[in-house]
Amino acid sequence: MTDIAMIEAAAARLAGHARRTPLLSSPFLDAIAGRRVLVKAECLQHTGSFKFRGAWSAVSALDPGRRARGVIAYSSGNHAQGVALAAARHGAPAVIVMPADAPRLKIENTRALGAEVVLYDRATEDRDAIGLSLSEERGLTLIRPFDEPLVIAGQGTTGLEIAAQAAEEGVTQADVLTCCGGGGLAAGIALALEAHAPGLRARPAEPEGFDDTARSLAAGAIRRNAALTGSICDAIVTPEPGQITFPILARLCGPGLAVSDEEALEAMALAFLRLKIVLEPGGAVALAAALFRPEAIAGDAVICVASGGNVDPSVFARALARFPD
Amino acid sequence: MTDIAMIEAAAARLAGHARRTPLLSSPFLDAIAGRRVLVKAECLQHTGSFKFRGAWSAVSALDPGRRARGVIAYSSGNHAQGVALAAARHGAPAVIVMPADAPRLKIENTRALGAEVVLYDRATEDRDAIGLSLSEERGLTLIRPFDEPLVIAGQGTTGLEIAAQAAEEGVTQADVLTCCGGGGLAAGIALALEAHAPGLRARPAEPEGFDDTARSLAAGAIRRNAALTGSICDAIVTPEPGQITFPILARLCGPGLAVSDEEALEAMALAFLRLKIVLEPGGAVALAAALFRPEAIAGDAVICVASGGNVDPSVFARALARFPD
Fold first, then answer.
1. Mean pLDDT by 10 residues, chain A (325 residues)
2. CB pairs under 8 A between A and B
3. How far apart are CA A181 and CA B299, in angstroms?
4. Has domain B52-142 been given CATH number 3.40.50.1100?
5. How many angstroms separate the Cα of A262 from the Cα of each of A38, A171, A213?
6. Given its phi and psi angles, is residue B268 left (phi above 0), alpha (psi -120 to 50 degrees) or beta?
7. Architecture of domain B4-50+148-320
8. Between B268 and B229, residue with greater pLDDT
9. Which of A46, A234, A241, B178 has its CB surrounded by the most CB atoms within 10 Å?
10. Where are the domains of chain A?
11. Residue A221: CB atoms within 10 Å
12. Tell me, what's the pLDDT at B325?
């Protein structure tokens, strides 16, 4: 089970390898939110999202013999790229299992980061069977995207940095809004804040209609999403909170927040204009909640995690189209 | 005359007020350039460009009585926003003189940062006469955009950070490509590197056809641009190097580099895709030179300054359109 000692150990392994991303701000965003808004820009992390932290944490913790046989992950998104780069930099083989209809650019990027991409047909093939067979044959270690203590510990290093950076800004009491899919990032941050910044409280932010974590927190038990497609914030749509992440979230997090796809696009546009960073829709929901749910937040300041920036140009152009020329 | 002591004094005044911007990288950019590419992301500076450093340096150095009367600047761009915010945070009035046909958003931004914007008609009014009259009437101090020792010292703090960050990356021998208009940033960086990283050499990067600094360096004397309009990189088009900046550049800089508008747009697109930062065309020319002029650069690594990100959405969309969907 992940605890603060595991997060601090992960931070030691990540030192010099992951970026300490900046905490950004703009008086224009403060004016919209009606309070100070501090944005932890994890889109600037290696591979464009916080996922590199958890991947590095997991890969670096393997014993060298096991690592040399390689790792495997199921993902067509940010976790895939994080695992691919973390493995490559350790000189370890990585196999990423992806649907054959994944965007070409994502497949190419993952290969360019040094991974072997194994494609499967979603209609006719069983992903887990393919992965299991490869793992047994080659002795690969599976790196789960969120329900894995070492991955949660890696994501928690974001929270250690937030605790230090918020203190530098004089902020000791605030909500820390975190884009939330399976809950690995939110759980890791919540544990780090509990230990190092008890006046900061983690709160998950999700897309409306896919707010399984908010509903689970309210119910005190895991609740599923009714659907798994239909949000532009696809990177953070998961069936339900994890078996490992949920108890952490339930113990430490404040109530969840949810925003619409339109609000996520608006937050992307404002991050472009005011912070000069690129966010993907799922990486912008925490900023959107900070800006557009002011009544649901208390205090003079709010911190939000901008968790990723791997967005298709056409989707980004949709966000930009909100500005009049 | 700006020297390293002035730059270090400026760094002390900027501490806690300007951001220490990150040095970013991507294996994908390294592959294009054929060497390591390290990008100093000054687009993440307050007001979206390095100009905030020089403005803060100049405003903070004024004696309090003079500062309380206020400052004035002529600019419709990055210098205007830098001076406006630096003055506002010192509680000092700022007057920004802008052409009446400047983009509405730039006028509104400058006002929102607390400055009084005085508009003039380019066809019928004399900007300098308006500024001089206001300055005399109110006792305002003029903050020049580049040919001013305190401004050069502020921009030089970028170079102090590059020296430290490059050493952390193990890079001690490299060209440091700097987007160059009047030369304030390039001169400040060159002085900082001379003192703190003698193996790093500043080199100006400019738009093709507006490479007054490159031609001046080659000739050993100031040369003018034939035209002052016609580049998408308008933020760094100036008539000629400054009287104060040029001798510094001539003593310390390597040969200049020039890139096309198309190459600047391509570099913006790659910065979006690989670094998740927003660059304006004039802020992307150094990255473009690093990526597309490999034969003009020596060594295993190149550092480039991404100097600003204040770009109209429609121009950014033009850069994004280079990606096939």
1. 96 97 98 98 98 98 97 92 97 95 86 95 89 93 96 98 98 98 97 98 97 98 93 91 97 98 97 98 98 97 97 94 73
2. 77
3. 43
4. yes
5. 22, 30, 20
6. alpha
7. 3-Layer(aba) Sandwich (3.40)
8. B268
9. B178
10. 4-49+148-320, 52-142
11. 11
12. 52
Predicted confidence at residue B57, as pLDDT, reads 98
- What is the total residue count of chain A? 325
- Interface residue A221 vs chain B (CB under 8 A): no
Look at A27 and B317 and tell me if their CB atoms are within 8 Å. no
* DSSP-derived 3-state class of residue B203: strand
Q: Using 50, 70 and 90 to split pLDDT, how confident is the model at B105? A: confident
* ipTM value: 0.96
The domain defined by A4-49+148-320 carries CATH number 1.25.60.10: no
Q: Strand B71-74 vs strand B141-142: parallel, antiparallel, or unpaired?
A: parallel
Q: Kindly state whether A113 is in contact with chain B, defined as any CB-CB distance less than 8 angstroms.
A: yes
Mean pLDDT of B104-128: 91
Q: Which of A2, A1, A8, A37 is nearest to A196 (CA)?
A: A8
Taking the CA atoms of B65, B69, B70 and B72 in sequence, report the sign of the dihedral they define: negative
Beta bridge partners of A24: A39
Write out the two tokens for A232.
């532009």
Provide the CB-side half-sphere exposure for B50 (13 A, CA).
35
* Chain B environment of A21 (Cβ under 8 Å): 22
Which chain B residue's Cα is nearest to A279? B276
